[in-house]
């Protein structure tokens, strides 16, 4: 087990043909059926440690200072805090039955958590672990995203086919926008002007105007050779400059590369089975995609737009983040 | 629910939620959509002996909680559309009584009805309201005739037909190359319908029925060639035994008693069904969990069909933005609708017989083994139409 600080690792992805990558660190993958987060060395992609968490770990995010990794343990009703240096769970915050996904307010003080069982977004003060507010939303809320200015919280309801737009100052719903069926997750442009949401059953991304809360457009995905029902977009990640979005297409086993400004699909990259969670390395040269039905992690070269390597991870991987 | 108690009403979506700033200006006068739920005072399909035995061919209880779950999970959509959703239940001892109940509810403004009854009763009730501006959802009768010669425009089917079940099973058998079948057929009218549906599917997908043998539930030694599984399954060669048994009592004694070591399918072993509690994908665990909390029983096919019926109306309500019956009906039956049945496909109604096209689950007692349409079974427009009566086979004339 390596206890070397991530920041001290001098890694390159030379193994993977990504020239110029630096400061690449550990990769964390949550596995729903292992009740654990698997930590991989960013260079060798060997398992560094398997961290036991609460039951059914799903969504993960770093704290703004990147010293702590927050992991939702859905079946334990809590968020585990993992020290990114020591790779140990240092604290657990009970948040109630069946949390799924969350975001952290831009000041790092609050969690906004989708509570699948209660059909609510729960606002939790991270320091005290106390609930600040609970906002009732449509059934089976999933994706939660705080706008770049911190003033707005977006949440999807899979069953209501809605995006709920919540005012972060009052914790009240500002609007409800009906989108494509089974909306899942978000990406937001850096200026907050466009909010992209994946709709799993509709097989599309809906683009919302961040200011008017209206629909600006949709992008349907139709990769060749796949039946409509297998095109199930879920994960989405955008480059920091807001130029490119990567959308995981679930059962279609591909990631779509989308030009955000033109709303054009540039490419489809073949990955593993039922691709959901995705994240970019800091230099954005590598895209990590977890595949829930092939229990592996695809390492994608974003320049060449192809998979360099697939690494087995735990059973039913849900999310992936990189500490770099 | 008490027998013949008239109606009970529960309103969902009313004032439970604090939804400040909801933007409902102009919708202060809430419209309403009520669902009438019609069922029989005594329905042998839910006899406690059958429920106790957990026959795979049967649900695990009455399907009504499916409707309640659908209304509860739609409260947000209803609020946003400015519509109040409600449920009114009525029971009667026969089809005539159900027609009276329907008329009473219809007089109170109810236009959407779920009917939980065997095929002949569904046919009787439907015939009494043919051509009327209301929608009747068949949630538990599999009879192919209701989708063919007895079809009518305002009768919609969210429960799969015998033909869909048989086609799903046939696809599975073909995918396994188990193409030779011994068919055991029960004495009930519905057993004959199941056997007939399987014969149609066998022909459609290239399965050979080696022999068809009639069984009866009997220990009478004079009838042992029809009551004894060993005798019924001897003197023939086959890959698999298909049991056509709507009751399920005989079928449950077939596995492991066959002369040859062959899988049993149809009413036991592996069944084709619209829903199974062990389905784990497409959000199914959350739906199962909501149903189980409400019903204290697991969700079966009819429970799913009851839930689905209300959800299709809610989807049309949401997309048309209100409670206008004509708009909802047209959208509901139109080609644009995407219905989420928690089975992974985009569902919609077939224009030619108003059957909900949907995937079928091939399930054992505690696992879903496969989902049909099975990969490789192609269709020029929609693979779901490889299950059941496709347009060119339809005898339905609205």
Short key terms for the protein model shown above:
heterodimer; A: 324 residues; 4-stranded antiparallel β-sheet; 0% helix; B: 398 residues; alpha/beta; Rossmann fold; 2 domains; 6-stranded mixed β-sheet; 4-stranded parallel β-sheet; 12 helices; disordered N terminus
Topology:
The complex is a heterodimer of chains A (324) and B (398).
Chain A (H helix, E strand, L loop, with lengths): L26 E5 L4 E5 L6 E6 L4 E6 L5 E6 L4 E6 L4 E7 L4 E6 L5 E6 L4 E6 L5 E6 L4 E6 L5 E6 L4 E6 L4 E7 L4 E6 L5 E6 L4 E6 L5 E6 L15 E3 L5 E5 L5 E6 L4 E7 L4 E6 L5 E6 L4 E6 L4 E7 L4 E6 L2
Antiparallel strand pairs in A: 1-2, 1-28, 2-3, 4-5, 5-6, 6-7, 8-9, 9-10, 10-11, 12-13, 13-14, 14-15, 16-17, 17-18, 18-19, 20-21, 21-22, 22-23, 24-25, 25-26, 26-27
Chain B lengths: L8 E4 L18 E10 L7 H6 L10 H10 L1 H7 L1 E10 L2 H13 L4 E5 L2 H10 L6 E4 L16 E3 L4 H14 L4 E6 L3 H17 L2 E7 L9 H4 L1 H4 L7 E5 L19 E2 L5 E3 L10 H12 L5 H20 L4 H9 L5 E2 L5 E4 L6 E2 L2 E4 L4 E5 L26
Parallel strand pairs in B: 2-3, 2-4, 4-5, 5-6, 7-8, 7-9, 9-10
Antiparallel strand pairs in B: 1-3, 11-15, 12-13, 13-14, 15-16
């Amino acid at each position: 087990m390596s206890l070397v600080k991530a920041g001290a690792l001098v890694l390159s992805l030379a193994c993977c043909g990504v020239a110029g990558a630096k400061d690449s660190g550990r990769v964390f993958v949550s596995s729903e059926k292992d009740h654990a987060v698997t930590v991989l060395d960013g260079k060798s992609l060997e398992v560094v440690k398997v961290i036991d968490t609460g039951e059914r770990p799903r969504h993960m995010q770093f704290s703004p200072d990147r010293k702590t990794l927050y992991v939702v343990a859905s079946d334990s009703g809590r968020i585990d805090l993992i020290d990114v240096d020591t790779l140990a769970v240092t604290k657990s915050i009970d948040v109630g039955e069946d949390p799924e996904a969350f975001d952290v307010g831009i000041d790092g003080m609050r969690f906004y958590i989708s509570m699948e069982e209660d059909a609510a977004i729960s606002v939790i003060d991270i320091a005290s672990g106390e609930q600040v507010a609970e906002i009732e939303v449509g059934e089976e809320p999933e994706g939660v995203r705080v706008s770049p200015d911190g003033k707005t919280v977006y949440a999807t309801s899979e069953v209501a086919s809605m995006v709920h737009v919540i005012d972060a100052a009052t914790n009240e719903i500002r609007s409800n926008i009906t989108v494509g069926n089974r909306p899942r997750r978000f990406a937001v442009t850096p200026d907050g002007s466009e909010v992209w949401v994946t709709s799993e059953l509709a097989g599309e991304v809906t683009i919302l105007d961040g200011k008017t809360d209206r629909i600006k457009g949709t992008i349907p995905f139709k990769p060749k050779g796949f039946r409509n029902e297998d095109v199930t977009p879920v994960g989405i990640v955008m480059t920091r400059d807001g130029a490119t979005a990567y959308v995981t297409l679930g059962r279609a086993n591909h990631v779509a590369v989308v030009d955000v400004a033109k709303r054009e699909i540039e490419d489809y990259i073949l990955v593993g089975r039922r691709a959901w969670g995705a994240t970019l390395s800091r230099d954005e040269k590598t895209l990590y995609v977890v595949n829930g039905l092939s229990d592996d992690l695809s390492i994608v070269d974003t320049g060449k737009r192809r998979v360099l390597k697939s690494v087995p991870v735990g059973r039913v991987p849900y999310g992936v983040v990189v500490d770099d | 629910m008490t027998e013949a108690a008239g109606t009970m009403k529960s309103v969902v979506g009313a004032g439970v939620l604090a939804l400040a700033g909801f933007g409902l200006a102009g919708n202060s006068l809430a419209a309403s959509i009520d669902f009438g739920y019609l069922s029989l005072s005594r329905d042998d399909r839910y006899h406690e002996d059958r429920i106790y035995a957990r026959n795979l061919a049967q649900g695990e209880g009455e399907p009504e909680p499916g409707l309640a779950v659908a209304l509860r999970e739609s409260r947000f959509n209803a609020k946003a559309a400015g519509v109040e959703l409600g449920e009114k239940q009525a029971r009667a001892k026969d089809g005539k009584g159900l027609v009276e109940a329907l008329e009473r509810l219809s007089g109170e403004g109810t236009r959407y009805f779920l009917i939980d009854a065997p095929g002949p009763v569904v046919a009787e009730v439907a015939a009494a309201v043919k051509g009327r501006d209301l929608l009747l959802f068949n949630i538990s009768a599999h009879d192919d005739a209701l989708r063919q010669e007895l079809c009518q425009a305002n009768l919609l089917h969210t429960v799969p037909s015998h033909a869909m079940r048989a086609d799903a099973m046939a696809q599975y058998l073909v995918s396994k190359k188990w193409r030779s079948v011994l068919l055991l057929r029960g004495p009930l009218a519905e057993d004959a319908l199941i056997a007939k549906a399987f014969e149609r599917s066998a022909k459609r997908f290239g399965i050979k029925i080696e022999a068809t043998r009639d069984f009866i539930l009997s220990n009478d030694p004079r009838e042992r060639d029809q009551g004894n599984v060993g005798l019924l399954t001897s003197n023939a060669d086959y890959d698999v035994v298909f049991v056509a048994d709507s009751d399920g009592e005989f079928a449950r004694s077939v596995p492991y008693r066959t002369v040859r070591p062959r899988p049993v399918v149809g009413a036991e072993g592996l069944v084709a069904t619209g829903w199974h509690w062990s389905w784990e994908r497409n959000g199914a665990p959350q739906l199962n969990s909501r149903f189980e909390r409400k019903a204290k029983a697991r969700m079966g096919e009819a429970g799913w069909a009851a839930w689905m019926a209300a959800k299709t109306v809610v989807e049309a309500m949401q997309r048309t933005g209100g409670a206008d019956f004509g708009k909802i009906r047209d959208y509901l039956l139109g080609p644009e609708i995407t219905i989420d049945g928690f089975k992974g496909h985009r569902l919609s109604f077939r224009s030619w017989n108003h059957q909900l096209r949907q995937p079928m689950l091939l399930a054992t007692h505690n696992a879903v083994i496969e989902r049909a349409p099975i990969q490789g079974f192609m269709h020029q427009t929609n693979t779901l139409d490889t299950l059941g009566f496709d347009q060119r086979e339809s005898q339905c004339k609205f």
